[in-house]
Structure formats: C-alpha cells, structure tokens
Amino acid sequence: MVSFSSLDILIISLFFLVILIIGLIPAREKEGDASEYLLSGRKVGLWLFVLTNVSTWYGGILGVGEFTYRSGLLSWFTQGLPYYIFAIIFAFFFAEKIRNATLFTIPDKIEITYGKKAGIISSFLIFILVSPAPYILMIGNLIQLVFGIDLFWSLIAAAFFSSIYLMKGGYKSDLYTDAVQFFIMFIGFILIVVISYLKVGDYNFLRNNLPATHLKLTGDASIVYVIVWFLIALWTFADPGFHQRCYAAKNGKIAKHGILISVIFWILFDFLTTSTGLYSRALIPELKNPVLSFPLYAEKVLGSGLKGIFYAALFATIISTSNSFLFLSGTTFGRDFIYKLKKEKREDKIPMYTRSGIFVSAVLSVILAYNIQSVISLWYLIGSICIPGIIILIFGAYYEKIKVSENYAIAELILGVISSFIWFIIKHNISIEWLKEIEPMVVGLVTSLIVHLIGVKNSGRMFSFNK
Q1: Crossing angle for the helix pair 252-283 and 240-248, nearest 10 degrees?
Q2: Which of 18, 27, 52 is nearest to 328 (CA)?
Q3: Residues 122 and 351 sit within 8 Å (Cβ to Cβ)
Q4: Mean pLDDT throughout 131-143?
C-alpha cells in the first residue's frame, strides 16, 4: 500500500537521529534545582516559547487528516477556529496571572485555592488528561508503516524515543526538540501543498472534485454538533501545557504575546493541513481508512526523497506533542503525587520523582495504546470524562469573585467526573436517538456548573466585584 525508497528511509532515520542528539544536549549540563529541571529556570524567551507552543498543539495530525477528508472545512471550523478564540481569551485574561503565580502545575494552583484534597484529586485528573497514549499510538502506527515492525514493538520504540532524552535533560530537552520540529513540520506541509497546487490543480480542481458540503464552513453538521465541539475547545483553559509554558516564560508579557503570536502560526499551519486534507479527498475519493489520508496522499503525489521529508514532518508534528505530554504526566506523577505525599519535602528529589513518572506514564501509554487502538476513542474517553470536573475551578482559581469553598470544589471535581462517566455508559447502552445526541462532556459541564454556582452563591460572592 505504501512504499519507501532507500532515500526516504535515510531521511526519516536522520530525522530521528537529529532529534535524539538535540534532545540529549541539555543532558550534558549540570543538573539544577526543580525549577531548572521542570521549567528551564523560568527563563524561556519569546521565540522559544512560540516555537514549542505551536509545535506541541498539533499532535493529532492523522486525526486532522481524517476529519478533513470526511467533513472538509468543518474540520477547521470545529478544530481550529474555537481554539484561536479561546487561546486569545487565555492570553489576555490568564497568561500573565499564571506566570505571576510562580507555581509549577495546575494542581499547585488548585491546592493553594481550594485545599490539599482538591489538589490531589485534580492531580489524578490531570495525569489522565495528559496521557500521551494517543500520540504514542500514532507514532507507533507510522513506525509500523515505514519500517514494517510489529505494532507492539513499534509502540515500545515510540515511547522509548519520546522519553529517553527527557529523563536527564528535562524541560530544556522538550523545548529544544520542539523548536527543531516546528521547522520540520512546516517545511513538510508547505512542500506537499505547493506540489499539490502545481501537480494536481488549483481551487477549481477542488471545487469540481469535492462534495459541495466540503467547501462549506459548517458542512452539513447540525448546530448542536458544532456547539459541542466549541465546548470541547474549552479544554484550552485547562490545558496543562499552556499553564506549564506560562510558568516557564521569563515574564507575563512573554507568555501573553507568545500565545497571541502562536495563534498566527496555528492559522497558517491549519491552512496547510486543511488544504492537504481537501486535496487527498479530491484525488482519492474512496479511501476505506481516512486516518491514513495524509500518508496515502503523499504516496500519490510525492516522489522519492520528498516523501521522506513529508513523513519526517508527520513524525515531528506528533513527537513534539508526545514528548511534551510525557513530561507533563511525569511532572504530575513526580511532583504532584510522590513529592506532595512524602512527609519529608526535599525539592532536590523532584527531578528523580519526575523521571519515575515519565517511566510510569510511558508504560501505561503503551498498554492503553495497544489495547485501545483508536486515537479518537482515546481522546473522546479521556477528554469527555476528565475535563468537566476541573475546568470551571481553574477560572475560579484566578478570579476571586467566582471562587468556591474547598467542599464545593471537591464536590465539583467528583460529581463532574462521575456524571460524565455515567452518561458515557448510558449513551452507549440506550436506543433513544435524541438522548444519544447528548455528549457526556455536556452532562459533566452542566453538573459542574450547577455545583459551582451553588457554591458561589452560598459563599456570598455571586454579586461581588472585588477580586
């Protein structure tokens, strides 16, 4: 189905070698304190912030290809536009506050605001949310496709490669490799779009060979379907990666401006990926497995060598996210679980605890990816259940007038998750169509909102304008 020349294999292999070497550069430096290992000493400048922020955002590149192939511009309207809006809001209303808090993680802020129990529960949810399992699965699938290795060993290789340089180099290794992968992913997708325009055709070709709904912003989707995706995009405010990068920035202005500049690059990259998806649908209209739309389209239009560059771009787009999520989950496990549960608080042990967390996360990711071999299923299950319980509490943590007491925070964390989980089970076991249309995340968000509003009212802050 897909063939690779010796030159393609050489280019892809060189990509892995270069990323490994760059990732190991910080390992040669003398190990610093927890702040140095977890946040690069809180000294990340504007452009390094932007490069890693942009590259980390696109780990689900094969899912983007599938969505665009199936639904056309609806993919951008639901997977791009709402995230720009919420990222801009995040930049103006949260970025500087988060940096000025001088903390390490979201659970830190939850604990300070709502108490230790709430902090521990939120740590558990964040650990699940930042599971790199979906990205390990995608890397494993590509490794299997390129090198012909059994999926299990491909997953092992994916987890090993994504984590090995993080063990010693910490956040700096994550930053350096993400920065390089930013350029590789843009080069690869610029290449395929330009060649598509020259070799396949211009907009007229797309208009004549695509279903009419593919060139409409909302396709033939219902308003409810679109609203659900906009709600899912609220994940932006609870994204541990956003918070981590804000904590690591030199100052609040860099965090704010870095996110705003990132939005510009996201728009550019979305144009490239959406265009590639539309070309693949127009040229190969009968794909049985649209998840492979990007790889199979590359097989049609790219020659030897160019295909290797494009595959390197696919790997770069996914690995830049998998290594970031591995480090985030390792940090959550090491600092928010082990360190905080220890009676003797020794910050010099945090890097060691984090390495243990990276290893545990990598192993769990391989197990999850091997047993649930669907990226979309992993995203849907993890996001729908975990996000509702924590997202509104994050708003309250930074804005005093909507903060609730510890008991209400704990109730919100638990009930938001439980209601989502229960509805997830009900949704897959009922035959009433209109009930099946209600997403578990919506049920969880409504539950959390009700608990939160009751908590705000009972605390006397409902109509207070004092921050």
Answers
A1: 140
A2: 52
A3: no
A4: 89
Q: Which residues contact 370 (CB under 8 A, 6 or more apart)?
A: 151, 152, 155
**DSSP conformation class of 44:** B
Mean pLDDT of 354-382: 81
For residue 103, the SS3 value is coil
Q: What is the mean pLDDT of residues 399-423?
A: 92
Between these two residues, 264 and 387, which has the higher pLDDT value?
A: 264
Q: How far apart are CA 412 and CA 433, in angstroms?
A: 29
Bridge partner list, 249: 44
* Beta carbons of 327 and 315 less than 8 angstroms apart: no
Structural tokens at position 299: 């097989």
User: 0.70 cut: is pTM over it?
Assistant: yes
Cα(205)–Cα(217) distance, integer angstroms: 18
92: helix, coil or strand? Answer: helix
As a whole number, mean pLDDT of residues 179-199 equals 96
- Nearest alpha-carbon partner for 314 in 160, 184, 145: 184
Polymer length in residues for the chain: 467
**Residue 199 in contact with residue 320, Cβ under 8 Å?**
no
Give 227-232's long-range contacts (Cβ < 8 A, gap of 24+): 228/439, 228/441, 228/442, 229/78, 229/79, 229/82, 230/78, 230/82, 231/439, 231/441, 231/442, 231/445, 232/383, 232/387, 232/441
